[in-house]
Amino acid sequence: MSSNEPRGATPLAPDREDHGFKKVLGRLDAIGLGFGAMIGFGWVILTGDWLVEAGTMGAVLALVTGGLIMAVVGLVYGELVAAMPYAGGEHNYLLRGMGARWAFIGSWAITGGYITIVAFEAVAVPRTVQYIFPGLSQIPLWTVAGFEVNLTWALVGALTAVLITAINIRGVKHASTVQIFVILFLLIVGLMMLFGAFTRGSVATMEPFFTSGTAGFFLVLVTVPFLFVGFDVIPQVSEEMHLPAKQLGGTIIVSVLLAAAWYVMVVVTTSSAMSGADIAGADIAVADAMGAMFGSTAVANLLIAGGLAGILTSWNSLLMGASRLLWALGNSRMVPRWFGRLHPRYGTPANALLFVGAISFVAPFFGAEMLGWLVDSGSPSIVIAYALVSVVFVILRRREPDMDRPFRIGGRSHGGTAIGVLSVVLCVGLISLYLPGMPAFLSAPAWTIFGLWWLLGLVFLLRIPTGIHPGVDAEHRLVAEVDRRRPSAGA
Question: What is the value of pTM for the model shown?
């Protein structure tokens, strides 16, 4: 074990070098990062649409179904992260089980999903703040898709990007501590919502329980990849966890279940406060419902502050995840090595953090219409990554049955493989929802963002040497081959 590794931490495998990450995160940190990543801003702006399109129980059923799907995928991730607790998560699993090019595809997919959501949060911050301060928008700049972008509005998101990026560069423990405190505030808001529902809510306003039948159900279900992305941040920072491997796998399942419970709670409390007709005419239904329930604008603003807390926790976690994935890609020479460097003092992937931070700084200047485009463009990439991880899980179960699996799912027989196959089927089912003619078929702007990301990825993919077969030392062989062809790449 490296002298830098605290006692009780999961040791690196013999084929892995100590990359210099600091093992400073515990179990509460892991759950906070996973849960906080999933509880972003979606529950604030989408709940009203869910209730209008699907009804109270239709929305609840879709969210529970989505939570169960993500729990199955989470089980797969839990076994893999416990077996390979290395920074970059998916990148390592796919290298070992499917080879270099598939590892790039999976890593590029989830990185794209993370970056779109980080940019989404940067746009969501001024959108949220403006609910509390209606006069926020001053000094018009330009109009994008009918939305007038104002300098003061955009700067709120841009300067928040600077702050969160700076906190992350200074150290993962600093970022995690901020995460825990913000989540505590968010949970207080949740308790207020429950208190209001039980003391002032009405079952009568929750009707109709179902609207639009299966169409409404699927309109909510297609948001699942966006709503639940983030549990997989835990694998990205696993090399920074001071935690036994078996517990590391379990934190993923706990975070998914907590997120599912949160979404169901938000739907039920909102529908108990306002009728369907009132919800349909609301600006931000969750906030308006809480304001109406307590007869107070201050309570509505407090709910919006809770939404802002959700933005910050999701942004913080996914910025961590995206930067660790870019670090892993750079460390493997799949993208410029610049991304694979750690800060000499703080031990964080500072260059990767700056890159993602710069994107989030710019995003608010494209206006509020970006919110929908970013959600739509990132979700298919996220599900593609989940599907590939599920496939490699099955491959490794068959090819390496004796691999050390501290968090083994389904026992030692074929139960684990069956869970992996089920995860593949469920992910393919989610992907099918984005095909032409299906409920989640992307708009033209979303397809443009999706296509540009993958076009850039194709440039890097074609530069990866062929013949790098899967295996425990796949990364070492890839790095050696790239450095042999381009000696400057190792500089």
Answer: 0.84
